[in-house]
Amino acid sequence: MKKWYVLLLLAGWCTALTAQVKIKEDPLITRMVETYINGNKAKASVEGWRVQLLATTDRQRLESVKQSFQYRYPSIPIDWVHSSPYYQLRAGAFTTKLEALRLKYILEREYTGIYLVKDDKIKPEELVGSY
C-alpha cells in the first residue's frame, strides 16, 4: 500500500514540476524560426546523394542498363540525366553519403566504375530507406 502512495506522490510531484516550466522567447527569435520553417516548406527539393551507374553517349545502352536494373531492383528509384554529350544513369536518393555508400557497395558486384554523386534536386518522396 505504501508503494502505491509513494508512486502517486512522485507522479504528482513530476506533474507539478512540468507545469512550472515557462519559456520566454524573444519575438525576434520566434520570427526567425518561422521564417526558417516557411523557407523549408517552400523548397521542392532537398540535397542528397545518388549512385551513378553509367555515363555514356549511347542512348540505347542507357535504356538497356536501366531496364535490367529496374528488373533486378524494382524498389530502388532510377533516373537519367542528360549532360551533353553524356547520358548519366543514377540510382537511389539518399540524404547522407553513408546511406549511398551502402547501396554502392551492394551494386559494385554487378556494375563496374560506379561512384557517388551529390544531387541537389532530389524530391522528398524519392528518398530511399536503408538496404
Topology, element by element:
Blueprint lengths: L1 H18 L7 H16 L3 E11 L2 H14 L5 E6 L2 E9 L2 H11 L7 E8 L9
Antiparallel strand pairs: 1-3, 1-4, 2-3
Question: What characterizes the major β-sheet?
Answer: 4 strands, antiparallel
- Count of DSSP H/I helices: 4
- What is the fold-level CATH name, i.e. the topology of the largest domain? Alpha-Beta Plaits
Which series of helices and strands comes N to C?
A: HHEHEEHE
Uncertain stretches = none
Bulk shape: elongated
Query: Briefly, what CATH class of the largest domain?
Result: Alpha Beta
Percent in strands: 25-35%
Strand adjacency order, main sheet = 2-3-1-4
* CATH H level, superfamily name of the largest domain: Sporulation related repeat
The number of strands is: 4
Structural domain tally: 2
- How far apart the termini lie comes to 51 Å
Assembly classification: single chain
CA radius of gyration is: 25 Å
Q: Approximately how much helix is present in the residues?
A: 40-55%
Q: Which whole number gives the mean pLDDT?
A: 83
Structural class: alpha+beta
Describe the structure.
- There is one protein chain.
- The chain folds into two domains: 2-42, no CATH class; 46-126, Alpha-Beta Plaits.
- 45% of the residues lie in helices and 26% in strands.
- It is built from four helices and four strands; from the N terminus they run H-H-E-H-E-E-H-E.
- The chain has helices at residues 2-19, 27-42, 59-72, 97-107; strands at 46-56, 78-83, 86-94, 115-122.
- Strand 2 and strand 3 form a beta hairpin.
- The longest helix is centred in the first third of the chain and has 18 residues, at 2-19.
- It is elongated.
